[in-house]
Write a structure and sequence with these properties.
Layout (H helix, E strand, L loop, with lengths): L9 E5 L3 H13 L5 E5 L2 H9 L13 E4 L8 H9 L9 E5 L4 H9 L4 E4 L4 H8 L2 H10 L1
Parallel strand pairs: 1-2, 1-3, 3-4, 4-5
Helix pairs in contact: 1-5, 2-3
Length: 145
């Protein structure tokens, strides 16, 4: 069976909190960004999703970018970032960190492992919209690779 390829770029969001995800969806809409948004709730689901983008029997579109939360159950974003960057299949996918964590070490670690950007989740909706408006520039960087 031939898989229909969507013309929309896919953004994979890792977010375990339903309310935060709904807010992020609304912020994408407010920012007038036309992407296919797919969601996973933790690092284990993220890696399963990525493996389903491979081969002739692929069941999911490979994301153009991953928005990664750091504090998640089962496998957190720090471990997941390292795993993705150590993978020959997925290490070129741009990753933007969007997290509640404000530890200096988290910012350092995520940059060390190749995240394109690190954002602290803002308190106000308008600030989230402004952060999300930055996402297309990271996708363009990927396409230049």
């Amino acid at each position: 069976m031939i898989r229909e390829i969507s013309k929309k770029k896919t953004i994979l969001i890792t977010e375990d909190n339903d309310d935060h995800f709904l807010l992020t969806q609304e912020a994408f809409h407010e920012a007038r960004l036309n992407f296919q948004l797919n969601r996973v709730k933790d690092g284990e689901e993220l890696m399963k999703y990525l493996h389903h983008t491979q081969g002739k029997e692929a069941k999911a579109p490979q994301p153009s970018i991953i928005i990664l939360d750091l504090n998640m159950p089962r496998k957190d974003g720090r471990e997941t970032l390292k795993e993705i960057r150590n993978s020959s299949e997925f290490n070129k996918i741009p990753i933007v960190i969007l997290t509640n964590s404000s530890h200096d070490m988290d910012s350092y670690i995520t940059k060390k492992y190749g995240a394109q950007a690190y954002y602290k989740k803002p308190m106000y909706f308008d600030q989230l919209v402004e952060i999300l408006k930055e996402i297309p520039k990271f996708i363009k960087e990927k396409n230049a690779i």
